[in-house]
């Protein structure tokens, strides 16, 4: 039996025995979501790049392939994963990246991970190997199940392989620092969205804003005049964005629970304590021992939602990780789960306790 | 076809009476002469008179209509402007055609934050027109953008000529509000990134009116580039132009638009539009760059150098905005031009890996001879989306059937080379048989599972997109026995 057939057989057995499975790549994101339960099911056998043709702007790889391997293969052809996925560990795999559905500093300009999902193959809860989407840029044959896999935390199926749109690396990038208040930074970031300027990342913390521009030399020169900040040297700039992406930046050092608040562009400061801002103001991080209801209510009042990103397992269980869904949406989630995983074996309780 | 006219009439009365209780008089069309304009969408090959047409003006009316139809088990087919090209809005003969064109208000234009909240009947271009004074626009630009509605764009995940760089509808819509067949209002996605739970927004976009009825859409508005220029390049053969496309992308350039037209297409549009196309070329490419002025100058120079080194026999960059628009006018008018030179045309929508374009176009050329029909090709070369326009005359015996079989063969070729049967027009009723070729039964069942999760009653646009077991079995048998479909009047080659 090949690895896919082996996994299918394992799923059929698990479904028959009612044995939950905990789908695991390298475990780099085991901190994320509600604590996992179930028998570990390793995706390491599903490894390797299936196809990569740079001029097609598509890479197809198996779920267990290390993210670092994919990025270095792309870099050799001058390309990249434009959504700059966080790794959160040296062994991070493509499958974990898809399941967590997280994007990095470029999210506000390049779009989220799901925008780059072109196709997947999965093993569903009946052990069937199914293909959705494909390796082409445009595809509206059937519902867009491929994108649904992104951020589903492995609760709908085992991702076997993924086809992602890739993009050329920009000719160059520059990073700038500007001293300013949070209000000033938010106004500045917001304005970047209303004029033609190649800003590809923004952040603010503790009186300093950082702005990255990317493009040709001509574009960078023109953008520098508009950004008007202190230019960081290249290594310093790259290190800064990497530390934000990987949460090695000092703000993220272990301590009080870390909350991620997602807000519409233009939302004011949260006023829930010190914040770190990314994505032109759409992603805010706070450290807070405040009760979940207060934090979620504030996020909701501003048109957004709050995720308990890092906390002890006990706190995650007590506070819940993701914002509870409206009843009509919850029903849809339950029905989808029931269809794709009728016996409820895939990562049960990882996203919501009853899913 | 003419099933049980008496039962139909009493059923029609029953449903009309129920709907009349919740809708104003002018929102309900029952007489055949009133419902006739709704018998088809942009795919005129397939027609069906709806039992009733309902034209709600508010979301509350949509909710009431769906509750009634759910209770009575009546099919509901949503329709925007009816410009769709796959019969997605073709009525159900025992169903309600739900026209959403009256829900046509822009509810909120938030130019500070680059979003617009609009009703489904707002036209695609009307959004960009409203945002233009603020230097913003809505990026997806299907050729029908002057008429098509955002609700229809959501249903089909519409693209356009700029989607390689700016994305499809799915990349430019932040939130969809809609009503399920149970009459429940749901909000999918949000103005904040990464809404919690599964990405149901992605499921709803491109769902062809089968999961919910859209009543509100929040779209992204982006800054209008400071400058845009387009290079028009001629090639002596189709393969060379395909290689040139790969070379541009391989050099790290993502053009704002990257289109190919073959000679049949340029010769059809030129007399009509006078775009200045090179009619001797086997294919022309249009390659657009946009952004800050400095950036564009730089990129246009690089694009021209690459195209020339790839064997372009003529290369011309637009020198003014008027000239840029003229170069594009030909491409944007390819469909009407087809209508001008032929009584009927049938537009296909397969997507292929870009590198296979040469062989696919050559194969289509051979099919032209076999089916004895002409075909002109326009191609979103940047994203591999092919639009062969098969020219036929529905009044000439056998031509419609041959066009249909010709189209089916093109789509199956697209799947065979690693592509898909539809890039942006949707499956609708048109490509439902080819879905049997692209997906196996378990995959089709997964689509049914999604359908039932949203539409437990199964009343929203039934019998579209997802073929039944029976249909696939029938289709498979035809393929095995004939090689071509056994339509009456179809010549065997």
Describe this structure in words.
The complex is a heterodimer of chains A (355) and B (493). Chain A contains eleven helices and 17 strands. Chain A has 355 residues and is an alpha+beta fold. Chain A folds into three domains: 3-168 and 333-340, Uridine Diphospho-n-acetylenolpyruvylglucosamine Reductase, domain 3 (2-Layer Sandwich), CATH 3.30.465.10; 172-245, 2-Layer Sandwich (Alpha-Beta Plaits); 254-319, Alpha-Beta Plaits. An eight-stranded antiparallel beta sheet of chain A has the order 13-10-12-11-15-16-14-17, sandwiched between helices. In chain A, strands 3-4-8-6-7 form a five-stranded antiparallel beta sheet. In chain A, a hairpin with a 4-residue loop joins strand 15 (275-278) and strand 16 (283-287). The model of chain A has no long low-confidence stretch (mean pLDDT 96). Chain B has helices at residues 5-20, 32-35, 59-72, 124-131, 150-156, 163-166, 169-172, 200-204, 238-250, 263-273, 293-309, 321-332, 334-341, 357-371, 399-416, 435-438, 441-454, 469-482, and strands at residues 28-29, 52-54, 76-79, 96-99, 106-110, 115-118, 136-137, 173-179, 185-189, 213-220, 222-223, 227-235, 257-262, 283-291, 314-317, 344-347, 374-380, 385-392. In chain B, strands 15-12-14-13-17-18-16 form a seven-stranded antiparallel beta sheet, sandwiched between helices. In chain B, helix 10 crosses helix 12, helix 10 (263-273) packs across helix 13 and helix 14 (357-371) packs antiparallel against helix 15 (399-416). The radius of gyration of chain B is 23 Å and the shape is globular. At the A-B interface, strand 7, helix 5, strand 9, helix 7 and helix 11 of A face strand 9, helix 8, strand 11, helix 9 and helix 11 of B.
């Amino acid at each position: 039996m090949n690895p896919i057939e082996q996994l299918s057989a394992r799923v059929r057995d698990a479904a028959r025995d009612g044995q939950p499975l905990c789908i695991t790549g390298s475990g780099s994101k085991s901190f994320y979501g509600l604590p996992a339960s179930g028998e570990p099911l390793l995706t390491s056998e599903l490894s390797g790049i299936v196809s990569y043709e740079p001029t097609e702007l598509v890479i197809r790889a198996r779920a267990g392939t290390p993210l670092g391997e994919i990025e270095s293969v792309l870099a050799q052809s001058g390309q990249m994963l434009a959504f700059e996925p966080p790794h959160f560990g040296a062994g991070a795999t493509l499958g974990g990246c898809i399941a967590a559905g997280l994007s990095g500093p470029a999210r506000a300009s390049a779009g989220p991970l799901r925008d780059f999902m072109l196709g997947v193959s999965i093993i569903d809860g009946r052990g069937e190997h199914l293909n959705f989407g494909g390796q082409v840029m445009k595809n509206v044959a059937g519902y867009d199940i491929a994108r649904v896999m992104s951020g589903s935390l492995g609760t709908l199926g085992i991702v076997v392989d993924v086809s992602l749109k890739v993009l050329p690396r920009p000719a160059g990038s520059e990073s700038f620092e500007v001293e300013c208040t949070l209000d000033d930074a938010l106004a500045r970031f917001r304005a970047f969205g209303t004029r033609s300027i190649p800003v590809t990342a923004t952040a603010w913390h503790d009186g300093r804003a950082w702005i990255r521009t990317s493009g040709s030399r001509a574009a960078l020169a023109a953008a520098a005049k508009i950004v008007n900040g202190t230019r960081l040297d290249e290594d310093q700039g790259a290190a800064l964005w990497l530390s934000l992406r990987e949460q090695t930046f000092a703000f993220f050092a272990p301590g009080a629970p870390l909350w991620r608040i997602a807000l519409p562009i233009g939302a004011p400061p949260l006023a829930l304590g010190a914040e770190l801002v990314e994505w032109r103001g759409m992603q805010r991080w706070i450290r807070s021992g405040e009760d979940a209801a207060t934090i979620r209510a504030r996020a909701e009042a501003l048109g957004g939602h709050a995720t308990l990103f890092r906390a002890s397992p006990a706190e995650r269980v007590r506070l819940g990780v993701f914002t509870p869904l409206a009843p009509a949406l919850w029903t849809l989630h339950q029905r989808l789960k029931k269809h794709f995983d009728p016996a409820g074996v895939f990562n049960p309780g990882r996203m919501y306790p009853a899913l | 076809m003419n099933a049980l006219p008496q039962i139909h009439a009493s059923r029609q009365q029953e449903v009309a009476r129920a709907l009349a209780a919740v809708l104003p008089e002018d929102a309900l069309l029952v007489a055949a002469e009133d419902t006739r304009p709704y018998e088809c969408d942009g795919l005129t090959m397939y027609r069906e008179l709806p039992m009733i047409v309902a034209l709600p003006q508010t979301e509350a009316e949509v909710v009431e209509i769906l509750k009634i139809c759910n209770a009575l088990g009546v099919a509901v087919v949503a329709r925007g402007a009816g410009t769709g090209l796959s019969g997605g809005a073709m009525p159900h003969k025992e169903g309600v055609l739900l026209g959403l064109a009256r829900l046509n208000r822009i509810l909120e234009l938030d130019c500070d934050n680059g979003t617009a909240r609009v009703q489904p009947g707002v036209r695609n271009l009307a959004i960009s027109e409203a945002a233009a004074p603020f230097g913003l626009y809505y990026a997806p630009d299907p050729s029908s953008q002057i008429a098509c509605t955002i609700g229809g764009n959501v249903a089909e995940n519409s693209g356009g000529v700029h989607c390689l760089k700016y994305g499809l509808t799915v990349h430019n819509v932040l939130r969809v509000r809609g009503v399920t067949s149970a009459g429940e209002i749901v909000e999918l996605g949000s103005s904040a990134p990464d809404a919690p739970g599964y990405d149901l927004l992605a499921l709803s976009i491109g769902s062809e009116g089968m999961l919910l009825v859209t009543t509100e859409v929040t779209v992204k508005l982006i800054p209008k580039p400071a400058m845009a220029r387009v290079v028009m390049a001629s090639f002596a053969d189709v393969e060379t132009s395909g290689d040139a496309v790969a070379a541009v992308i391989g050099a790290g350039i993502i053009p704002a638009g990257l289109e190919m037209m073959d000679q049949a297409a340029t010769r059809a549009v030129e007399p009509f539009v006078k775009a200045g196309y090179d009619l001797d070329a086997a294919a022309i490419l249009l390659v657009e760059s946009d952004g800050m002025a400095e950036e564009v100058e730089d990129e246009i120079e690089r694009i021209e150098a690459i195209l020339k080194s790839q064997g372009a026999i003529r290369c011309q960059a637009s020198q003014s905005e008027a000239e840029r628009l003229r170069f594009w006018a030909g491409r944007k008018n390819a469909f009407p031009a087809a209508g001008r030179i032929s009584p009927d045309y049938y537009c296909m929508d397969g997507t292929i890996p870009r590198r296979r374009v040469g062989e696919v176009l050559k194969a289509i050329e051979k099919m032209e001879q076999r089916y004895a029909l002409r075909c002109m090709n326009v191609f979103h070369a940047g994203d591999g989306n092919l639009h062969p326009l098969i020219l036929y005359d529905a009044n000439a015996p056998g031509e419609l059937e041959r066009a249909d079989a010709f189209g089916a063969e093109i789509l199956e070729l697209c799947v065979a080379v690693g592509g898909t049967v539809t890039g942006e027009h949707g499956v609708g009723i048109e490509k439902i048989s080819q879905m049997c070729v692209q997906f196996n039964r378990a995959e089709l069942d997964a689509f049914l599972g999604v359908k039932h999760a949203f539409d437990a009653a199964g009343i929203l646009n039934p019998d579209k997109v997802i073929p039944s077991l029976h249909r696939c079995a029938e289709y498979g048998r035809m393929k095995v026995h004939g090689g071509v479909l056994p339509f009456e009047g179809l010549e065997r080659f």
